[in-house]
């Protein structure tokens, strides 16, 4: 066990794409901290360019479990845990299917899929779609299922839920809290599913652990600078970083 971890640590530290992953995780952590979303849409395009598909998913599941922890108590106070639980039920049902698809996807196709999903979501958000009314139980479970499928397949569990909440007329604090709680819940579900399928290889787990501290610090910094009265500015910055991450990591530029 010790020798396996030592070998995995040595391989992780010598991975030529590690510096890029550290940069990506710092950007993702800052955005997650001040907007409540954006980690996967910023990190995954970078990860897909330097890691195999399953490894990219494993790394984000590992570091993203720890990153939001300092913000969970506040999210529980400001959010709607009952609605988040319904979203989580849908994710639990569909995420294993997404992981199965991930194990069969070509790495180049994976890169296209990750960037395309992020860009499509970004376009819809920029258009200013608005959800009228309060989502019912069926819509929450269904949205969670779509999120779980995308989360297992491309590490992008956030987009469907972001579309549901960011396009609503709810208070910014409630939106941030619900998204943060859901993403933390899907990380736990994802780790459980990936582990049960025997996909937690030592090296990507170690890479995820190495990324945890910079992600945690960036997340805390982002949360510290968040101010509700400047929500529009933070959202614009998040959109810009998502767009750059998705476009720069397209296979066309490899």
What does this structure look like?
The protein has helices at residues 2-13, 18-35, 39-50, 53-66, 72-78, 81-102, 107-126, 137-154, 158-166, 172-196, 202-225, 231-248. It has one domain (2-253). With 254 residues, the chain is mostly helical. Helix 3 packs antiparallel against helix 4, helix 4 (53-66) crosses helix 10 (172-196) and helix 7 runs antiparallel to helix 12.
Secondary-structure map:
Elements: H1 2-13, H2 18-35, H3 39-50, H4 53-66, H5 72-78, H6 81-102, H7 107-126, H8 137-154, H9 158-166, H10 172-196, H11 202-225, H12 231-248
Helix content: over 70%
- Principal-axes geometry comes out as globular
Average pLDDT, to the nearest integer? 86
Give the domain tally. 1
Number of strands: 0
Question: Uncertain segments of ≥5 residues (pLDDT<50)?
Answer: none
Largest sheet composition:
none
Distance between the termini: 37 Å
Strand content: under 5%
Number of helices: 12
Task: Please state the CA-atom Rg, rounded to the nearest Å.
Answer: 17 Å
Compressed to H and E, one letter per element, the order equals HHHHHHHHHHHH
Task: Kindly summarize this structure in a few lines.
With 254 residues, the chain is mainly alpha-helical. Helices cover 78% and strands 0% of the residues.
Keywords:
254 residues; 0% strand; 78% helix; mainly alpha
């Amino acid at each position: 066990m010790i020798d396996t971890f030592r070998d995995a640590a040595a391989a992780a530290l010598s991975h030529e794409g590690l510096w890029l992953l550290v940069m990506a995780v710092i950007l993702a952590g800052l955005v997650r901290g001040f907007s409540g979303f954006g980690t996967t849409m910023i990190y995954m395009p970078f990860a897909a360019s330097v890691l195999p598909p399953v490894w990219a998913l494993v790394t984000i599941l590992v570091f993203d479990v720890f990153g939001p922890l300092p913000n969970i108590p506040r999210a529980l106070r400001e959010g709607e845990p009952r609605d988040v639980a319904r979203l989580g039920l849908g994710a639990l049902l569909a995420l294993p299917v997404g992981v199965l698809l991930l194990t069969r996807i070509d790495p180049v196709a994976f890169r296209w899929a990750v960037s395309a999903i992020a860009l499509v979501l970004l376009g819809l958000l920029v258009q200013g779609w608005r959800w009228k009314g309060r989502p019912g139980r069926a819509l929450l479970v269904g949205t969670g299922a779509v999120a779980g499928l995308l989360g297992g397949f491309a590490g992008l569990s956030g987009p469907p839920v972001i579309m549901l909440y960011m396009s609503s007329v709810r208070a910014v604090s409630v939106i941030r809290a619900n998204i943060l709680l859901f993403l933390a819940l899907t990380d736990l579900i994802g780790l459980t599913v990936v582990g049960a399928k025997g996909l937690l290889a030592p090296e990507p787990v170690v890479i995820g652990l190495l990324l945890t501290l910079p992600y945690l610090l960036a997340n805390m910094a982002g949360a510290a600078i968040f101010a509700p009265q400047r929500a529009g500015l933070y959202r614009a910055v998040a959109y810009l970083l998502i767009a750059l991450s998705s476009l720069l990591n397209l296979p066309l530029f490899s």
